[in-house]
Structures are given as C-alpha cells and as structure tokens.
Amino acid sequence: MAHIQRPLIIQSHVIRLCCPRTARRTSSTLFARGNHHQKLNTKTVTENDISHLASLPLHPLTLADLVKHGRPPLTTQQLLTSANFTLSILPARLAHRIQSLRNLPFIVVSNPHVSKIHSNYMHSLSTLLPWAEQEIKTLEEEIKFTEVMADLVQTHANTISILARGFLEARKYITPKDVTRFLDEHLRARIGTRLIAEQHLSLHFSSQPHCEFMQEQDDNPGYIGVIDTRLTPARIVEHCANVVGEICELKYGVRPTIIINGEPEYEFAHIPVHLEYIITELLKNAFRATVESGMEREPIEVTIAPLPELSSEDTSTRDPEDVRNKKIDNEDQGNADVASQCFTGNNTTTSPATGSNILPLKHSTPGVTIRIRDRGGGISPENYGHIWDYSFTTFNDAQASSTLSGNTHSASGMDALNAFSGAGGDGANSLAGLGYGLPLGRAYAEYFGGGIAVQSLWGWGTDVYLSLRGVGRVENVEVQREEARKRQR
C-alpha cells in the first residue's frame, strides 16, 4: 500500500485526547508532515441547506454507538464504517445548533462573541457539506475526512468561555432563566457533537495504517477510542483530588484529606474525560466549602458503589422523575431545540423526533454511584434553588472579565463553589469562576442516562450523589457485532 501523507492540521491537544498514552510524548509535530496547515475544502452553506438538515430526525447518541465499530486497531472497512457513521450524524446536529442560535433575540446574536460561535458552526458545516452526499470509500478519503474532524474539534474548543462572555455582555437583553435554558440545551448538544468527532479521531489514530503508537496502545488494551472499558473511578477520584488539593493549598495554605471507601477496585466502561471533569467540579465544591467553614480537619468522604443491575420490572415501575436513568432522547441530549422556542413566541413544546426515545443500553448495564460527603456547612436556603443555574450574573463586569481572561478550564466554571460555601467570588484570584461547573457537570452525567443529586444539611454539610451508566458488557457488544457480520456474509 502506497504511503499516504498524514493530516497536517491535527494538533497536540487532539492527540492527547484521542490517544491517552501519546500525551507523554512530544508535541504538535507528531503527526505534522509539513510546515503549514492544509486548506480544507469548503462549500457555501445556503439557507436551504440549513433548513433541510435542521428538519432531519436526529440520532440520539449512545455509548453503544461509540463501541460498535470494534476494538482498535480497526480494519480498513471498520474504519470506513466509523467515518461514514460520523458523517451521517454531524451535519444535522450542526444545523440544529445554527438554527437554535438564530432563534435568540437579534441583539443577543449580534454580540460579537455569540456571533463568533454562530460563525464557527457555519464554518464547520461548510467543511462537512462537501462530504454530506457521498460515501467514504477509500483510506485516502478517510484521512481527508479526519482532517475535517480535527478542524471541527479545534474550532469549537473554546465555545463555553466565548458564550459566557457573550451572554454576560448581552445580559440586559435576555433573562437569566432564558440564558440557562438555552445554555443547558446548547452545551448538551455540544457534548455529543464533540464526542462523535473525537471518537473517530481516536479510532483513526489507534488503527492501522495510521497509528504510529501501536505498542503504546497494546499497553492500554481497555480503550475503545475515547472510552475506557476498564475505568476505575477511584483512580479518577485520586487524580482529581490531587489536582484540586494543589489549587486549594495554593489559595488557602491548607487542603482537606480524602477518604475513599466502598468498592475502590470497581471497574466499569465510561469516558474518562467526562468523569474527570465532573469529579473535579464536585471536589472543588467540597474542598472550598470545607476550608472556608474551618472544617479542614474533617476528611471528605468519597464512597464508590456499583449500581445494581436493573430488571425489566424495575425499569417499567420506576418513578417518571427518574426517566433519565432508563432512556435517552433528543430532548435529553439537547437536540430538540426546546430552549430556542421560548424566543419565538411559541408556547407549545414539540415532542422529540419520532423514534428518538430509545434505551441507551440493555437494562442490565453496569454503572456506578459515587457519593461525595463533606462537612462544609451545607448550602444556604437562598442559594439551594440556584445551584443548577449558569450563575455568571452574580459577578460584575470587571470580575467576570478577569475570570474569562484566564485559561479555558477556569472559564468553564468554578462559581458553583460559591453556592456551596456561601462566599463571594473574586474572579481570577479565586477558585470561583462563572457558575458553569455544576450545571455542565450534570449535563455530562445525564447525557448517557446518569445524574447528579444534591442533599444539603444547612449548618452541617453536603452529600452529592453522582450516578453513571456504563457502556455495558463490551464483550457482548463485540460478539453481537461479529454475529451480525457473519449474517451479512
């Protein structure tokens, strides 16, 4: 097989995400075979394109979707199947985001930061349209398509911080409630869009003939793309506790201790990056509340418990409020454009696309519950009702701008710590940010049928319960896929 030049635009941050083991190696030149970025082929996006794609039924993403192509290294045909699956899903999702942004009040969309996000989505759709009506049939085409996916991931890397600044500047023209509804829908949809692109990038790099790190992949056989099928939550907790502890010690000169109990050796299949984000946000809340209430000698207790396997009777009799634990639909994943309707004068709610209510996995999918218990004094009654809000409006412009001028992780939100400690934030000099941490963490948890519940005893402390459903028994998924392949033959 003739050598095919590797994509030029794929950057180090994409490589670190897609191939965890390669993060310890050098840098942006790993896959660069030239001195400049290769220009992507684009097509002008018309209003008809947006209207047509936005009218298509959406595919609610499941973890099973992400592992169905097989365990790396993929064969050429499996890699092409992954690319075509990715291509079949993304254009409609991008069109829905464009349409949702346009349904905001005109003066809000005119804000340069919100307008930039709209332009980013238009750019990504323009790079996908040349591929939209064709099938990827060769490895050369797959490599070019992977360039498009890398560009998409890079283009939307700072969406959260840019939107935060835009809505902060436009807050006179849109209510906090409407902003929260819009962001909740938009950021949930963003999770799926990025994950689809990142999964294909990861499968691409870990498969022949593309991957130059097969030995490192062999050292980490649990990964299927961005999913770790042998994820140990206790290790994630330990890592995040060390990171948050260093920040806490730098800020306050002290850090609480962590006790991990329950079943710390438990493993399940999930996305490490998602769990790391959620745990980091929850531990920041617990650390800050504990220290600022003067209870730093009281350890923060983290209990890890496998979720029980559900019988069909359990799923049929469960309380409707717990519906997120048993099915995934377009509305759950931010694809029903519910939030945008509040700006159109339409008080009715459209139902999700036909056939969108699907079981994410079999009812016996193993998962985990993680309880984080602190003695930080609890959440005050006046703050308790707002812990899920994107609470950037609690800052003045100078404080918010100071926070937003920092790195993207800070801008993605630490202000949820304010609600838990009852303290005010001081911008970049605080563990606090703009209030995106807790609601976005819940969005990550709920995306695949999990959730976050908070129980507070005011004057005592807070218990936070994180539940996550796993990908299921991956071996069974692979057996089913092989049987289907044999039947096709």
UniProtKB/TrEMBL annotation:
Superkingdom per UniProt: Eukaryota
Compositional bias segments (type: Basic and acidic residues): 315-330
Biased composition (Polar residues): 341-357
Location, primary (coarse class): mitochondrion
Enzyme class, first EC level, given as a word: transferase
Keyword check for Cell membrane: no
GO MF annotation list: ATP binding; pyruvate dehydrogenase (acetyl-transferring) kinase activity
Region annotated Disordered, chain positions: 307-360
Span of domain Histidine kinase/HSP90-like ATPase: 270-472
Any single biological process term in GO: regulation of glucose metabolic process
Coiled-coil segments on the chain, per record: none
Database matches in SMART domains: HATPase_c
EC number: 2.7.11.-
InterPro entries with a match to the protein in the record: AK/P_DHK_N_sf, BCDHK/PDK_N, BCKD/PDK, HATPase_C_sf, HATPase_dom
Keywords, ordered alphabetically: ATP-binding, Kinase, Mitochondrion, Nucleotide-binding, Phosphoprotein, Transferase
Family (UniProt): Belongs to the PDK/BCKDK protein kinase family.
Protein name as it appears in the record: Protein-serine/threonine kinase
Source species of the chain: Clathrospora elynae
